[in-house]
Amino acid sequence: MTGRYYELPSLTALAVFEASARHSSLKLAAGELNVTPSAVSRQVKAIEAEIGVQLFIRNGKGVTLTAEGEELYGVLANSFSRTSDAVRSIKRSNRAKNVKLACSDVFATMWLIPQMPDFWRGHPEIMVDHLISDDMWNFRRAEVELRVRFGRGTWSDETSEFLFDECVYPVCSPTFAARHAGAVTADLPHLPLLDVNWVGPDWIGWTDALRTAGLPHTTFDGRRFGKFNVALQAAMADQGLVIGWHRIVGDLVEQGTLVRFTDLVINSPGGYYLTWNANYELSPAALILRDWLRSVAGITRAGLRPLATVD
Q1: Pair 129, 252 in one domain
Q2: What is the DSSP secondary structure assignment for residue 310, as one 8-state letter?
Q3: Which of 62, 89, 271, 276 is the most exposed place for a label (fewest CB within 10 A)?
Q4: pLDDT per position as a tens digit, 8-36
Q5: Cα 136 to Cα 55, 140, 171, distances in angstroms
Q6: Domain containing 293 — which CATH number?
């Protein structure tokens, strides 16, 4: 039978002894270790029996160390402290190079990913794990360090930082716009409308847009899509009008891939926010990514200013 390589008592027993010596109390050690005082007492007796010396003197107020106990405690306290420092250092090193960022599908596709080459050039050592879903409930808070969320900036137990605001307007392909040249806002209910099924309370669909514009909206006969990206593709394929979110489609409009249709512009009730768990410190990698997102958001605010809108 092979013995322990270092000929030491079990680490559990040593940890129990160290906690008892540090507190000068078996009861307080039991509370720290989440075990019963009797379990602590058994471990202490076991280590004393294995070593063959008495380590504690019991008294009415707790325990005091014998000379042998003082010697063992001094070595253990130093070793445990150094081990703890090493573990924390390893954790910091791993976290310094990895960060999980969550955002919606359309935000990732249309805004974030096109910006990321700039981040990689500056920080090639950091790995960003992109968690992408249109349903933020898919992410457990403990899994994600940073999120880009659309809303009003108030979420339970999350720190939120404003990135940029938003407005919406109808967009379509150049071919569709040419085919319906001369159309005005009042004509919108009579044209092919491409809508998106959405669960977010701040999402603006065609019903909301038509209501805001004071147009008929009691029934909706347009085409519906499960994702905004798909609705955009349908609009670019001359199938109709989609509500374009300025911060998402602005580049496509500037490039001429999409064109604005009529002068209708509506303020969005929400904006884009960078958020993180208010109960935990961000890792070094997350801090670097957060600062970069702040910088790029500032460029977005300056370069794509909201238009005159209908409230």
Answers
A1: no
A2: B
A3: 89
A4: 888 888 999 999 999 889 889 989 898 99
A5: 55, 9, 27
A6: 3.40.190.10
